[in-house]
């Protein structure tokens, strides 16, 4: 579904993403993990074409993303981040509907989709669709952020430390929900975190980054059983 081929990003003469080659299969929940500064967010933003590559190629279903129109890319790739960036003066419904509106869906299509998505996250649509972001708890706002990313039914969902700012209990329940949503929707997800416990909970595959390089890619079991090097061993050892 998503293929990165020798992807490199250079800032100030330094490869912050260094020749990363990775393929993410349809329906995978691939967790991209590594310490702060290892290049995870930069990698994700290149998949989304929020920033250009210095060299290499990224393909979505075989098609070079450089040749996909921006609007089409927004439809095909959803993006959810920690600071959700919900528009404060817009209701939950209006926030979720950003991409559908760009795509000129009718208001009844939008309304129905918002209902489905709130349902998916067990938020009562009649109660929540008209609320404003300041009326939501952190966990509810984060659910709306993910719902927004899923609004136009993208093929791929990118998530950058989406639950990082939440308290541990809310975080646990959102991880559980994400697992369920992944199972129910079969979405291809690339999920960035620096938290090994989160990775082990969620991932069908884990890709470990260190200083811009991919150091190991495997199932959680493979990573736990046969860490590729001391870095991975130490990193895995930090989880409990
Ligand atoms: P991570 O998400 O793994 O914490 P990032 O991808 O955000 O890491 O950053 C990787 C490295 O690239 C860091 O050293 C960061 O300082 C650097 N970096 C990120 N964005 C820029 C930028 N716009 N200009 C210069 N350096 C950047
Ligand atoms: Mg980051």
Description:
With 240 residues, this protein is of the alpha/beta class. 40% of the residues lie in helices and 26% in strands. It contains eleven helices and ten strands. Strands 6-7-8-3-9-10 form a six-stranded mixed beta sheet, with helices on both faces. A four-stranded antiparallel beta sheet has the order 2-1-4-5, covered by helices on one side. Helix 5 (107-120) packs across helix 7. It is globular. The two termini are 32 Å apart. The model has no long low-confidence stretch (mean pLDDT 92). It binds adenosine-5'-diphosphate (ADP) and magnesium ion. Adenosine-5'-diphosphate (ADP) binds next to helix 1. GO terms for molecular function: ATP binding. This is ABC transporter ATP-binding protein. Belongs to the ABC transporter superfamily. Residues 2-236 form the ABC transporter domain.
Any key phrases for this structure?
alpha/beta; four-stranded antiparallel β-sheet; 11 helices; globular; binds adenosine-5'-diphosphate; binds magnesium ion
Strand order of the largest sheet: 6-7-8-3-9-10
If you compute it from the alpha carbons, what radius of gyration comes out, rounded to the nearest whole angstrom?
18 Å
Task: Write down how many β-strands occur, each being a DSSP E stretch of 2 or more residues.
Answer: 10
Q: Give the mean pLDDT.
A: 92
Please identify the structural class as seen in this structure: alpha/beta
What is the tally of helical segments? 11
Q: What does the largest sheet look like?
A: 6 strands, mixed
- Report the bound ligands by name, code or SMILES: adenosine-5'-diphosphate, magnesium ion
Shape: globular
* H-E order: EEEHEEHEHHHHHEHEHEEHH
Uncertain segments: none
């Amino acid at each position: 579904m998503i293929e990165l081929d020798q992807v490199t990003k250079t800032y100030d003469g330094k490869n912050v993403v260094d020749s990363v080659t990775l393929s993410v299969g349809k329906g995978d929940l691939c967790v991209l993990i590594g310490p702060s500064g290892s290049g995870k967010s930069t990698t994700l933003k290149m998949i989304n074409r929020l920033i250009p590559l210095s060299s290499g190629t990224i393909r979505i279903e075989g098609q070079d993303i450089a040749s996909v129109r921006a609007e089409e890319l927004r439809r095909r790739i959803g993006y959810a981040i920690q600071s959700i960036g919900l528009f404060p003066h817009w209701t939950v419904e209006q926030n979720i509907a950003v991409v559908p509106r760009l795509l000129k869906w009718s208001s009844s299509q939008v309304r129905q989709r918002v209902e489905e998505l709130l349902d998916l996250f067990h938020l009562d649509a009649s109660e929540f669709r008209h609320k404003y972001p300041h009326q939501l708890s952190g966990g509810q706002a984060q659910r709306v952020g993910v719902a927004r990313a899923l609004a136009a039914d993208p093929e791929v969902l990118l998530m950058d430390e989406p639950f990082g700012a939440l308290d541990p209990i809310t975080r646990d329940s959102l991880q559980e929900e994400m697992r369920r949503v992944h199972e129910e929707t079969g979405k291809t997800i690339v999920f960035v975190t620096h938290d090994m416990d989160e990775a082990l909970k969620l991932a069908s595959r884990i890709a470990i980054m260190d200083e811009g390089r991919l150091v190991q890619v495997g199932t959680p079991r493979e990573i736990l059983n046969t860490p590729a090097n001391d870095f991975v061993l130490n990193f895995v050892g930090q989880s409990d």
